[in-house]
Amino acid sequence: QLLEAKASLSLAQAQHALQLQQAKAQINNMVPKKQFEQLQNTLREEQCKTQQLQESLQQQAEQTCRQLVRTQEEHEQLLHAAVEQAEGLEQSLRHAEAVLAERAAQLSSAQAQLSRNKLLIEELRGENRRFAMALQAAELKQKTMEEKNQLLEEQASALKQLIGKITPASLS
């Protein structure tokens, strides 16, 4: 808008200069008074328009300057806010990385413990199988001993009965 206003002003000034030259040429050529007055009126009107354009141009320039200052201040505020936000995000990121590293260490430790526990469980399962086999063997041995014990008790009972029969007969 400022450039357009300057262009309009330059055009008006050029037209004004041209009209002034024309007016002077006509005056030199003994222009009639009525036409001279019309040209003077046109000249005054053009000067008035030029003055108005200059004032408008000045106002637009001042308004544009104020708007530029406001825009620059807003941009500086936005930049400051963005920098603060970036610093906050960077700090959050560092904190998150530290927490993540701690959790990774905990996870690694837990994984190592889990591996040790798996090995221990495998060892315990092996021991449990050996104990189960030993228990089975012990139960089988106990069963065999009980059967032998039963057989011995039956034999002892048979012997007692035989002794009981033999003893009265031998006494008599």
From TrEMBL:
GO process annotations (BP): microtubule anchoring at centrosome
Keyword terms of this UniProt record: Coiled coil, Cytoplasm, Cytoskeleton, Phosphoprotein
UniProt main location, coarse: cytoplasm
Keyword Cell inner membrane: no
Domain of life: Eukaryota
UniProt keyword Coiled coil present: yes
Coiled-coil segments on the chain, per record: 36-165
Localization per record: Cytoplasm, Cytoskeleton, Microtubule organizing center, Centrosome
Recorded GO CC terms: centrosome
Protein's recorded name: NINL protein
Lineage start: Eukaryota, Metazoa, Chordata, Craniata, Vertebrata
